[in-house]
């Protein structure tokens, strides 16, 4: 039977190994392959997209997920895994139709087996990605470090320089602290969105939807990845002032915190205007479109 690396143990150790692999993967994990990064999706149930792995290798003929499933060794492996996990086949392997989540999805151990059959280098890369996730489960600081390193590589590929990247990293940290403060002070559900829009209004002349429109961004694109250094600094300062105001005055709830955000952003917008910063497209927008 063609067992993946994580199952090559004595039978009495299989269950422990599989339980170790029952970590929650992100919606998409990055697999490092041939000096590049491949994005592999994961569904809400934790199953990994075999279709993404197949496409990452150029969709080779006679190597599709369906071809792999028809192998006798694969059927034996699936039966063994189902027995260990005490779950029906649909719990470890399923096919879906759809524009965004279509394809073949499988348990992480099956994904390793498919990757090995598909390409030895891919197998090692996927196995390494899983091992890194296990390490990050026990060492969250490591996850933060790796996550930042991945983000930096992504920004560098977008052509961002070191100064912009430094400012963007600060903005990520500030945003997390800001969101944490909002949560501790009773902001719930749409309140987070409203506070963000209250920050954008004085600086951009509209909500996040307006900002997206002005910058020509799709809904899936991160607005702050398309801000320049000045924009990032202005938004960061607005959130920092609002955070201080909320904490110092012990404000509570969506309405009070939203008002604090609006007031903070207005003060930053006023300072920018007085310093000579002008919009390139609208007298009502302090920050430029770029």
UniProtKB/TrEMBL annotation:
PROSITE patterns from the UniProt entry: KILA_N (PS51301)
Keywords: Coiled coil
A single GO molecular function term of this UniProt record: DNA binding
Transmembrane regions: none
Coiled-coil residues: 220-247
Keyword Cytoplasm: no
Domain KilA-N: 27-133
A matching Pfam family: KilA-N
InterPro entries named among the record's database cross-references: HTH_APSES_sf (IPR036887), KilA/APSES_HTH (IPR018004), KilA_N (IPR017880)
Superkingdom, natural source: Bacteria
Name of this protein: Prophage antirepressor
Lineage, broadest ranks: Bacteria, Pseudomonadati, Bacteroidota, Cytophagia, Cytophagales
């Amino acid at each position: 039977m063609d067992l993946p690396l994580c199952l090559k143990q004595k039978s009495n150790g299989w269950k422990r190994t599989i339980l170790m692999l029952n970590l929650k993967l992100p919606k998409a994990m990055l697999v490092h392959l041939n000096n590049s990064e491949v994005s592999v999706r994961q569904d809400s149930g934790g199953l990994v997209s075999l279709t993404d792995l197949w496409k990452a290798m150029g969709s080779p003929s006679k190597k599709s997920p369906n071809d792999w499933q028809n192998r006798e060794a694969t059927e034996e492996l699936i039966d063994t895994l189902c027995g260990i996990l005490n779950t029906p086949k649909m719990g470890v392997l399923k096919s879906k139709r759809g524009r965004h989540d279509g394809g073949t999805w499988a348990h992480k151990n099956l994904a390793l087996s498919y990757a090995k059959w598909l390409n030895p280098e891919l197998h090692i890369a996927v196995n390494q990605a899983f091992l890194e996730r296990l390490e990050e489960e026990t060492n969250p600081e490591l996850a933060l470090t790796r996550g930042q390193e991945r983000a930096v590589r992504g920004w560098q590929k977008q052509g961002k320089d070191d100064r912009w990247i430094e400012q963007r990293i600060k903005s990520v940290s500030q945003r997390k602290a800001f969101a944490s403060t909002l949560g501790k002070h009773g902001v719930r559900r749409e309140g987070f969105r409203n506070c963000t829009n209250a920050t954008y209004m004085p600086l951009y002349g509209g909500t996040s939807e307006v900002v997206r429109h002005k910058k020509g961004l799709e809904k899936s694109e991160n607005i702050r990845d398309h801000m320049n250094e000045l924009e990032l600094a202005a938004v960061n300062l607005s959130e920092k002032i609002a955070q201080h105001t909320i904490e110092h005055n012990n404000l509570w709830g969506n309405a009070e915190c939203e008002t604090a955000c609006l007031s903070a952003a207005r003060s930053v917008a006023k300072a920018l205007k007085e310093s000579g910063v002008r919009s390139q497209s609208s007298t009502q927008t302090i920050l430029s479109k770029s």
